[in-house]
Amino acid sequence: MIELRGINKSFGKTQVLFDIDLTVERGQHVVLFGPSGSGKSTVLRSMNMLAEPDSGSLKVDGIEFGPGLPGESGKRGGRLALRRRVGMVFQQFNLFPHLCALDNVALPLRKVHGMSRGKAREKAAIALRRVGLIDRAANYPAELSGGQQQRVAIARALALDPEVILFDEPTSALDPELVGEVLKTMREVAETGMTMVVVTHELGFAKEIGDLNVFMEDGRIVESGPRGFYENCKSERAKQFLQAVM
Ligand code: ADP
Ligand code: MG
């Protein structure tokens, strides 16, 4: 579904990703974890070209994107094709404060899929129902709890019928008592077979859904492994990190 090959990325003089190779199979649930500043967000953002790599290649659903490539990549059409396939949920929900929950979900359907207002709102209602928030459709973000806002953001990603959804620390900005409802929604999305890449520090959740678990440090993938990884990881750094943080 997603193939990162030899991705390097610098911001100014500082290199933040070194030769990242990562393959995400269709239907797989990948957990990315590691210290703050290790490059997790930049890896996620490389997967939808929010961060453009300096070198290396990105393939999504068989389509190649990357610096200096002909065809779809680099052009607006290419980005749009990518946005249609790759949804993203951020730590800070990024909802529009002046739009109700329904219109927050409907707006990208109009922008990305070119749907009419009526059709987009219909589709948005279905997505809100999936995350259990149809009764909040008319509420503005300020009238919703953080957990509800994040579930609206998940509905917004789902509504676009993406091939994969990227979650960047989706529960890190939430009060502890609100984490559970968001994890529950993510679990339900996972159960539909959606391909997911999740940056999280929620160890229990990671153990539960991680088909592939990737530990990053200093812009590199240190170690990765399948189910059971958290009990069996080999590198001292991954062990230390798990003990200290998760
Ligand atoms: P993580 O998500 O693991 O905390 P990030 O991918 O956000 O790590 O960041 C990796 C490194 O890149 C950090 O040192 C961070 O300061 C730097 N960085 C990230 N985004 C930018 C940016 N837009 N401009 C400059 N430096 C950045
Ligand atoms: Mg981050």
UniProtKB/TrEMBL annotation:
InterPro entries: AAA+_ATPase (IPR003593), ABC_ATPase_HisP-typ (IPR030679), ABC_transporter-like_ATP-bd (IPR003439), ABC_transporter-like_CS (IPR017871), MetN_ABC_transporter-like (IPR050086), P-loop_NTPase (IPR027417). It is found in: Cell inner membrane. Keywords: Amino-acid transport, ATP-binding, Cell inner membrane, Cell membrane, Membrane, Nucleotide-binding, Translocase, Transport. It comes from the Bacteria. It is an enzyme of class 7 (translocase). Residues 2-242 form the ABC transporter domain. Its EC number is 7.4.2.1. GO terms for molecular function: ATP binding. It catalyses: L-arginine(out) + ATP + H2O = L-arginine(in) + ADP + phosphate + H(+); a polar amino acid(out) + ATP + H2O = a polar amino acid(in) + ADP + phosphate + H(+). PANTHER family: AMINO ACID IMPORT ATP-BINDING PROTEIN (PTHR43166), ARGININE TRANSPORT ATP-BINDING PROTEIN ARTP (PTHR43166:SF25). This is Arginine transport ATP-binding protein ArtP.
